[in-house]
Amino acid sequence: MEIESVKCECCGLKEDCTQYYINQVKAKFDGKWLCGLCSEAVRDEVSRGKKPSPSAIEEAVKAHMSFCGKIKANPAVCVADGMRQMLRRRSTTSLPVVRSSSTSQVDGS
């Protein structure tokens, strides 16, 4: 088996893989090579979709490529987008808000 270097089309990460594995990944992601992290992000995006559609993977890949492009262009956008996504996910998970019920007081003496 021959090892080949391949570059992620989203984030630019380079990996050494067999041609067989490269072909498998490209078949799953509309002909594009995605590293492990980006492929997981795309799968996560597809799984959170409301309606499964034939173009769901293609749309998720395009959205993730756009996100990665913004990160490369401006690191501040990375932080802002990360916070936005975190808050959006938090608001959709409907987790109960945990509040402190501590009754301890600080002694002033």
Please describe what this structure looks like.
This protein is mainly alpha-helical. The chain has one domain. It contains four helices and two strands. It has a two-stranded antiparallel ribbon. About 10% of the residues are buried.
Number of domains: 1
Radius of gyration: 20 Å
Low-confidence blocks of residues: none
Number of helices: 4
Estimated structural class = mainly alpha
Beta content comes to 5-15%
Q: Level of helix content?
A: 40-55%
**What is the string of helix and strand elements?**
EEHHHH
Anisotropy-based shape: globular
Strand line-up across the major sheet: 1-2
pLDDT averaged over residues: 80
Largest sheet: 2 strands, antiparallel
Strand tally is 2
- N-end to C-end Cα span: 75 Å
List the helices and strands and how they pair.
Blueprint: E1 3-7, E2 14-18, H1 19-28, H2 36-47, H3 56-73, H4 75-93
Biased composition (Polar residues): 92-109
Region (Disordered): 90-109
Pfam family, one: DUF1677
Could you write a compact summary of the structure shown?
The protein has 109 residues and is mostly helical.
Main traits of this protein?
109 residues; mainly alpha; two-stranded antiparallel sheet; 4 helices; 2 strands; 54% helix; globular
